[in-house]
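Quick note —
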Amino acid sequence: MKKKTIIQIALFVLLAVVVVFVVCEYKRKPLRYHKAGIEEIDRDIRSISAKDLTIAERMSYYSERFLGAPYKLESQGDGPYAKYDRLPLLNLKKINCMTYCEIAMALTLSDYYVDFFNILQHIRYYNGIIGMATRNHYTMVDWVQANSWCLDDVTLQLGGDQAIAVERTISHAEFFKNKGIDDIPVMWPDRRTTIHYLPFEQLLNEKPELQSGDIVALIQNMGGIFSAHMLIYIENETGAFFRHASMSAEKTVDSPYEQYLQGVSENPRYLGMSFMRLKEEIDWKKNHGKFIVPLNIISRSEWGAAPLKGEGIEHIPKRITIHHTGVVYEGVPVALEYLKGIQRYHQEDKQWIDIAYHYLVDLNGRIYEGRPEHLVGDTATDYDPHGHLNICLLGNYEDQTPDRSQIESMSRLIADLCLKYDISPKTIKGHKELTDTKCPGKNLFELVKNKTVLNEVEKKIRLRH
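Predicted structure written out below.
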């Protein structure tokens, strides 16, 4: 072999090794939001939202996305067209201690990027109304109280009798005056407010039962204000940390728990810490910035259902059972006519009072009202349908594969029914788990068996979809 050929092969192998190394290094590095684009962030939020993670796990994940992010005190404002603070409404490239906590919280509660942006404004502004007058300026007074929809002050719960009360007057009028602003409404009069904090000695000697993701306020010894700094408590396999956007470090860092507490406890300016925690369940129907698409259920009258043939037997719904119609359906005839055919078959051939199922879902995820919920469904198989709410997908899922939109709609419907009747999502079963049948078909049943449906329903209940 010629020397030139050998050199070319060697160079090619070396290049291949370098490429593989670079690719592996890229894959190993966690995504950093302050270096990523919107599309990349959106994909990541959607990916995390699809996983069955706790609030604490989400807070830990999203807060880590900003480690190393540059610190900038004036990093976020009311937007370029505001009168007083024309900095961007959202800045992921540079953050301060408060915007960092707000951003991590909003990401934790969101399902995609636009969702995140809107929730963030509701965390940062009173009722989500953007402006200097409505911004939640004071952490322990404005911010905690305005965010009671998603956040609890757990200081007393953690500290008990050792929690110390401190009282101060908070004045928005004085705040705006010091900024030279005299032409906006003062939303809140001067308030004499009491808060509680845990002293450093207690935090060091008897570490409270903190949870990863807890928001922390560093309480200072100064009149007219409580909080000097905001942090996020993180606990993982490597230890306990305060994760925060640090002015002194000029970036977001993890500070070991005891080391950080020792440092601030030696400064007479600081008294201790207060602690806040995101709620596990949020009533999103009050719409705190989250897009809530109403569950559109096509009523019996809208699809032309015939009247019931009899009174039926009443029951109290206690469980959810998933079915399919068992006949391949590809959209012809249209769902409304298809449902009428099913109802005629059940009423005339089977001699049942009505269509057997309480709800039916078509190929596009549209939901149709079937038999009234308070009446027992019917079955041609050997199980007692009392207490069962029967949800049926149109089609034969031995042969067909359920569409993502069908599973999404069905999961939202089941979540609503679980909340309405206080039904545990763990009661969700496929028809074949109750009797000898192929229903709801192997392709749909697989999503029940592997807990895809259960996880979707529980997530929607947890976030109040």
